[in-house]
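Entry for AFP complex. Fields follow.
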Amino acid sequence: MESGRTSLSAFLAQESSTIQAEYRSNLPQLILQLSTAIKKIAHLTSQGALAGALGSLDSQNVQGETQKKLDVFSDDILIETFKKGGLVAGIASEEVDEPISIPYTGEQKPFLTLFDPLDGSSNIDVNVSVGSIFSILPAPRGREPALADYLQHGRKQICAGYAIYGPATMLILSLGKGTHGFTLDSASQEFFLTHPNIQIPAETSEFAINASNERFWEPPVSRYIAECKKGKTDVRGRDFNMRWIASMVADVHRILMRGGVFMYPRDTKDPSKPGRLRLMYEANPMTFVVEQAGGLGSTGRARILDLAPESIHQRVAVILGSRNEVERLEQYHRDDDVKTKLNSPIP
Ligand code: AFP
């Protein structure tokens, strides 16, 4: 290892004293197991069409979404890794309907892992960055996990993060003491610390939203975006820029690197869905790393990490990123709720 470069394993050893005592010996092992799975997925995505891993399958996942070959390959790699690793009592995946519980044989396995194995998979065939998102929760003691054991609110996460398979493969990780970035050195196949203690600027002039949904947005979101688009001619006093990669990992990574606000809000497009993104393995882990980097994660009406989960695949509105912008959007939601109350007929 070149002098002065800190490998992932060296970082985990250095950070050991900050890890809860009961997880100090095994959480680093779990993260190193995860990093091995990420390297395998990174290799597959980098091979593109050559790996025969592009394109869609005839199957659909529990979300009713067409599965890409790489979705399933990535899911298999992660499930196999955690099953063989011996530290995980249960696994929940976007690609699998019910959680996979590992039979309890008397030896305590301390962790539950929840993940979106390949986020942004509709971008794979057009060679745009995709990623894997993961959340680590404490497993129940002395028994096999039941469904209810996975439904812990986001502040219970022991560790969370994501891998981004882009021009560089990076692992962004938080153990609850800051958010740190590691870059994969393709020659040595080692992750090295390149972005210690990431800080998201509180101010930003860049928003990320799928503008084609504009007619479905709720008033506070419409108000916020309209003000951003009016730029320095209106209340914001400065011009804004927009980005939308349609790969949450890539959009959130940009925000961790230079600030911004990511929005997949509740809209009226499908009233049965309170948003598109999933709470347990997208919103919670991404909010965890963002808040550990000084940002905020909200539905507009509640902080994401405080939400009491109701189901493994439940969806949620997501507003995530630079603190001042998320707080402004929360205020706009409060303003709108007051207006709605004032305009509603007296019962
Ligand atoms: P896929 O995994 O189906 O590509 O969805 C990606 C995603 O869940 C998230 O990563 C994006 O931010 C969001 O959906 C994009 O949604 P739209 O396609 O509606 O813009």
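NOTE: The chain has two domains: 8-195, 206-339.
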